[in-house]
Write a structure and sequence with these properties.
Layout: H1 2-19, H2 28-32, H3 42-65, H4 72-91, H5 95-113, H6 115-118, H7 125-130, H8 138-164, H9 172-194, H10 203-207
């Protein structure tokens, strides 16, 4: 359920991004909040405003439903969205919102890579997540941890490529909305194929 809720702000961003004219500096959503439009990036500004508002609402709901607490990564994503989204809107400069996903993915990648240093048992963080379903030796967990760290670093690179290099960022909004999902699903499919022999079998199923 929580994973599905995370997609709501992205959907809001994408719909507004696609529906807004680049040159519409007087878009109603910008006007309501007293924001100044840009020259040809108003589709990003309106989408960013929708993203920030939707993120606050979603994480507000999660805060209440999780007994008035958020997980560390949720606080991080919320803070990054508000800070970089706020800078984008305040300065009418989409550079900052483009940079947000790069930094978030880099932070997750580096965090996963160095997680054994900070955990009490010195175990990779992915072991805590996948130990119930995977049977790996210590070296296997290290490799899987590095693979997940590499995934987020690659996604950071892709966000940077589509935001600042490829076609002047023309397709950045499309990648921002769907890129992470496509890359993640591809990675998960590959992980399933590579580790298919290491999945723990349901003992009840075996007995039957």
């Amino acid at each position: 359920m929580k994973s599905l809720l995370d997609f709501i702000p992205l959907i809001v961003f994408y719909v507004l991004y696609k529906k807004t004219d680049k040159t519409d500096a007087d878009h109603p959503l910008l006007t309501i909040f007293g924001l100044t439009g840009g020259v040809d990036n108003n589709h990003i500004l309106v989408g960013t405003l929708g993203l920030v508002l939707a993120t606050i609402l979603v994480y507000g709901y999660l805060f209440v439903s999780q007994k008035f607490r958020l997980e560390k990564q949720q606080w991080f994503v919320l803070a990054m969205t508000i800070v970089f989204g706020g800078l984008t809107l305040a300065l009418s400069d989409d550079y900052y919102i483009r940079l947000k996903a790069v930094l978030i993915n880099l932070a997750f990648g580096l965090g996963i890579a160095i997680s054994p240093i900070f955990t009490k048992d010195r175990k990779p963080v992915v072991k805590k997540l996948f130990d119930p379903i995977l049977n790996l030796n210590s070296q296997g967990w290290v490799k899987l941890n590095l693979a997940w760290a590499g995934l987020f670093i690659v996604m950071a690179g892709l966000h940077g490529f589509f935001a600042f290099v490829f076609m002047g960022g023309e397709y950045w909004g499309d990648f921002a909305a769907f890129g992470d999902v496509i890359v993640m699903m591809t990675f998960m499919a590959g992980m399933f194929v590579v580790l298919r022999k290491h999945f723990k079998l349901d003992e009840t199923a075996i007995k039957k």
